[in-house]
C-alpha cells in the first residue's frame, strides 16, 4: 500500500477520534440538563450513568468477535454514526424509558467504537513503524474541548438538548461517514515481543499489567472529571466560576501532552515516557491533596493532565506490540478496563471523601497512578521502541 493511502487512513482515523471527543463531551457535560429533562432522581442517576460504561464493556468484548469476521474498519464505519444518532435520541425524548433506551444504545455503540478505533490506531502504528498513537488521542482531546465549548454555548443560551445536539450531529454525521471511506488497517508484521501468533489465544497474564495500568489511569481521569469542581469549591473555597477552571486546564494540558508525546516515544521509548507520565500524574495528585488554595489546586490538576495524557494511548499501543498477530483481540479486551476504571474511580473517591476527607481521598488515585511506574517495563525497552522512522510502512489492507 502506498504512503499516500497510509496518510489518508491516518487522517481519516484522526477525524474519527475528534468526532468521538466532541460527541462524548456533549453527553457528559450536559448530564444535569439530561437529569432535569427526564426527571431522573438523584438516587436513580448513578444507575443510568453506570449503565453506559457497563454496556460499553459488553460491546467491547463482543467487538472482538465481530472484527474477526468483518475487520475493525467496518465496525467503526457503522458504530460512529450510531453513537451520533444515539446522542440525538438522548436529547429528543421526554419519558424515563426513552432516556434508558437512548443511553443504553449510546453505551453499546461507544464500546464498539472505542475498541475499533484503537484497533485501527494500533495497526496503523505498526504499518508506520513509529509511534503515532498519541496523535490520535490528541485529536480526541481536541474534540473534547470543542464539545465542552459547544455544551457551554447551549447551556448559556438555555437551548434544549435536542436544539443543541441537532446541528452538531447534522455536521459530524456526514463528515464521519464520508471519512470512513479511507480507513485502512495495517498488515501483520513479524512478532516483536513475547506475544502470541495469529490464531492463538491471548495470554491474560501477559496482558494483565496493561489492564491494571488502564484501570488506574481511568480512575485518575474520572477523579478529575467528576470531582475537580467540587474539590475546588468545597475544599479549597473557590467561587463557582473558578471551580470550572480545573477540568478545562486538565483537558488543555492533556491535549498538549498528547500532541508532543509521540516525539518523546520515538526519542526515548514508550517505557520512559509512561514512567515519566506516571510520576507527573502522582505529583499532580499530591499537589491537589496539599494545595492551600484554589490556584494551587488548579496547578495540580494542570500537572495531572500532562502526566495522565500519555498513559492510555501507550497502553493500547503496548498491547498491539505484545500481541502483534492478535492485536485486535488484545485491544478489545484491554478496552474493557477503560470502563472498569471509569466505574470504580468516581464512587471510590466519593466514598473516601465522605468517610475520611477529600484531601485524603486524592492520595488513593495518586498511589494507583504511581503503580504504573512499576509496570512501565511492560511497555517495552528503549531499543524495542517505534522510533527513528527507519522501517518502511508494511503492507496494509482495507478493513
Give a written overview of the molecule.
InterPro entries: MFS, MFS_dom, MFS_trans_sf, MFS_Transporter. Residues 207-399 form the Major facilitator superfamily (MFS) profile domain. The structure is a single chain. Helix 1 runs parallel beside helix 6, helix 1 (3-28) runs antiparallel to helix 7 (161-179) and helix 4 (72-92) runs antiparallel to helix 5. With 399 residues, the chain is an all-alpha fold. It starts with a helix and ends with a strand. It has a two-stranded antiparallel sheet. The protein has helices at 3-28, 31-38, 45-70, 72-92, 96-128, 133-156, 161-179, 204-235, 245-268, 270-290, 294-308, 311-322, 327-355, 358-361, 363-375; strands at residues 185-186, 396-397. The protein has 15 helices and two strands.
Question: What are the defining features of this structure?
Answer:
single chain, disordered C terminus, two-stranded antiparallel sheet, 399 residues, 2 strands, mainly alpha, 15 helices
Shape, per Cα inertia axes: globular
Q: Which consecutive residue ranges, at least 5 long each, have pLDDT under 50? A: 188-200, 382-399
Major sheet size, sense and barrel closure: 2 strands, antiparallel
Query: What is the radius of gyration?
Result: 20 Å
The level of helicity is over 70%
Strand and helix order = HHHHHHHEHHHHHHHHE
The SS-based structural class is: mainly alpha
Strand content: under 5%
Q: Gap between N and C termini, in Å?
A: 13 Å
Mean pLDDT rating: 88
Give the strand line-up of the largest sheet. Answer: 1-2
Number of helices: 15
How many β-strand stretches?
2
Amino acid at each position: 500500500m502506498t504512503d499516500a493511502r497510509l496518510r489518508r487512513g491516518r487522517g481519516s482515523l484522526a477525524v474519527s477520534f475528534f468526532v468521538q471527543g466532541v460527541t462524548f463531551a456533549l453527553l457528559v457535560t450536559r448530564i444535569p440538563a439530561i437529569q432535569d429533562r427526564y426527571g431522573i432522581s438523584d438516587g436513580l442517576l448513578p444507575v443510568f450513568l453506570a449503565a453506559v460504561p457497563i454496556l460499553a464493556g459488553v460491546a467491547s468484548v463482543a467487538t472482538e468477535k465481530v472484527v474477526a469476521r468483518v475487520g475493525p474498519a467496518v465496525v467503526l464505519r457503522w458504530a460512529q454514526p450510531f453513537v451520533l444518532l444515539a446522542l440525538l435520541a438522548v436529547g429528543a425524548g421526554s419519558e424515563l424509558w426513552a432516556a434508558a433506551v437512548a443511553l443504553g444504545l449510546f453505551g453499546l455503540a461507544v464500546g464498539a467504537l472505542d475498541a475499533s478505533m484503537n484497533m485501527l490506531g494500533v495497526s496503523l502504528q505498526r504499518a508506520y513503524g513509529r509511534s503515532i498513537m498519541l496523535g490520535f488521542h490528541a485529536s480526541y482531546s481536541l474534540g473534547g474541548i470543542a464539545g465542552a465549548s459547544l455544551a457551554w454555548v447551549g447551556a448559556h443560551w438555555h437551548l434544549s438538548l435536542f436544539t443543541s445536539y441537532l446541528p452538531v450531529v447534522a455536521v459530524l454525521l456526514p463528515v464521519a461517514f464520508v471519512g470512513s471511506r479511507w480507513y485502512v488497517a495495517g498488515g501483520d508484521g513479524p512478532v516483536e515481543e513475547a506475544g502470541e501468533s495469529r490464531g492463538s489465544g491471548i495470554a491474560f497474564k501477559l496482558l494483565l499489567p496493561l489492564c491494571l495500568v488502564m484501570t488506574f489511569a481511568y480512575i485518575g481521569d474520572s477523579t478529575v472529571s467528576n470531582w475537580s469542581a467540587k474539590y475546588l469549591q468545597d475544599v479549597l473555597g473557590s467561587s463557582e466560576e473558578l471551580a470550572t477552571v480545573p477540568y478545562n486546564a486538565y483537558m488543555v494540558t492533556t491535549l498538549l501532552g498528547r500532541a508532543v508525546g509521540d516525539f518523546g516515544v520515538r526519542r526515548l521509548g514508550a517505557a520512559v515516557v509512561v514512567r515519566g507520565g506516571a510520576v507527573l500524574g502522582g505529583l499532580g495528585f499530591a499537589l491537589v491533596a496539599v494545595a492551600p488554595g484554589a490556584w494551587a489546586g488548579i496547578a495540580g490538576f494542570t500537572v495531572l493532565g500532562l502526566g495522565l495524557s500519555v498513559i492510555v494511548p501507550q497502553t493500547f499501543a503496548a498491547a498491539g506490540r505484545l500481541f502483534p498477530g492478535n492485536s485486535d483481540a488484545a485491544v478489545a479486551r484491554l478496552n474493557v478496563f477503560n470502563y472498569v476504571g471509569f466505574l470504580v474511580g468516581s464512587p471510590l473517591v466519593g466514598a473516601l471523601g465522605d468517610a475520611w476527607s477529600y484531601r485524603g481521598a486524592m492520595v488513593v488515585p495518586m498511589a494507583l497512578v504511581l503503580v504504573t511506574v512499576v509496570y512501565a517495563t511492560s511497555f517495552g525497552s528503549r531499543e524495542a521502541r517505534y522510533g527513528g522512522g527507519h522501517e518502511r510502512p508494511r503492507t496494509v489492507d482495507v478493513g
